[in-house]
Amino acid sequence: MIDHYETILPGVPRIESPFFERFFASGLVDNETLRIARNLRDNGFAVFDFPDPDFHSAAERIKANLTNRYDWEGWRLGRIENLRIQDTWKIDDDVRHIATNAAAMDLLKRLYGREPFPFQSLNFPVGTQQHYQSDSLHFSSMPERFMCGIWVALEDIGMDQGPLVYYPGSHRWPIYQNEHVGHTYASSLGTNQRAYEACWQEMVDITGTELCYFEAKKGQALIWAANLLHGGAKQTDRTKTRWSQVTHYYFKDCAYYTPMHSDPVIGLISYRQPYNIQTSSIERNKYNGQFIPDSVLKAANPFTANQSWATGLPEDFDAEAYLEINPDVRAAGLNPGDHFQRHGRAEGRVWKR
Asked: How far apart are the C-alpha atoms of 27 and 13, rounded to whole Å?
């Protein structure tokens, strides 16, 4: 029965499919999977206990290994908005183990109907304090919504530590991209999500959607759907930590791209070539079972198609502000100008206050 319904709408995740009740009918899945699936369908997120018997010990090892890699003084003096290190799975086996946890990935496969793969990890020792956002703006797929994140608490987290925030049900809203907010990426030096924040705020106001906070216990995890508005509350006590790990997942047999950096109507699509952390290989882009040729990926790349705006530093580039806003660049000891030109512009990073 499942195969039959997936042949009708193969490009829609099970949890967001009109055939949800067929995929998760009684007897086909266990009660816990059904609970998580319904929460994702209805609210766009689901809380569960991370399925790793060694989790508590692993969390302590991660904290011990990463502590000295952060600029704690800058954070406590308020010079730095947040602390994070991306892709620490490269230097920490416990981070990689959490990102590739077999039970968590098997759960995602049952929920989405396609095989997941982790492509990015983020480790935070304090609150992100990030404005709420939709990952569909940053990490999208074709077909859409085949992306999700898992956030897991590495310690108990209360309201004064800047807990995760989210707007239940916002995942069901349309996925708004550049054409919807009147922005053209090719005509500027790039953009970041601030171009969307007014739209998101108005959507929250007009729908009356209420903000929720996740005060987590150590070992609790939260799965969120790609289009759920989520962010981090302000951390009111900077003497405390708020250790957590985020893993972002794509699903196989899709095309992967960044809508914020794309203008499809004029042929510019910022395709991603995500790295599969589990298999240590690049996942190739596919469209309905067919690999997208490298020549197409290159021709559509906005960073090579229009070199007049894709090279050089903006006139108002502030190197010190760039390092403060992007502490992972500082922690890695990278030259801010070089990093912005090689990576930061493509990632939509902010270079001035």
From this structure: 20
Beta carbons of 95 and 84 less than 8 angstroms apart: no
**Lowest-confidence segment of 11-25, 99-113, 314-328 by average pLDDT:** 314-328
The CA radius of gyration of the chain, in Å to the nearest whole number, is 20
Would you state the torsion angle of the CA atoms of residues 85, 90, 92, 93, taken in this order, to the nearest 10 degrees? 140
Fold of 44-311: Jelly Rolls (2.60.120)
Cα distance between residue 164 and residue 44, in whole Å: 14
> What's the length of the chain?
353
Q: Round to whole Å and give the CA distance between 250 and 140.
A: 9
**186 Cβ contact partners less than 8 Å away, ≥ 6 residues apart:** 263, 266, 268, 302, 305, 306, 309
Q: Do the Cβ atoms of 238 and 78 come closer than 8 Å? A: yes
Global confidence as pTM:
0.86
Nearest to 348 by CA among 319, 318, 322, 327: 322
CB atoms within 10 A of CB 198: 10
Type and span of the H or E element at 120: strand 116-124
Of the candidates 159, 167, 171, the one whose C-alpha atom is nearest the C-alpha of residue 216 is 159
Domain residue extents for the chain: 44-311, 314-353
Indicate the residue type of 72: W
d(CA 200, CA 194): 10
Question: Within 13 Å and on the Cβ side, how many CA atoms surround 274?
Answer: 28
Quick check: 3 pLDDT over 70? no
Contacts of 65 (CB under 8 A, 6+ apart): 91, 92, 94
* Counts for the chain of helices (H) and strands (E), in that order: 16, 15
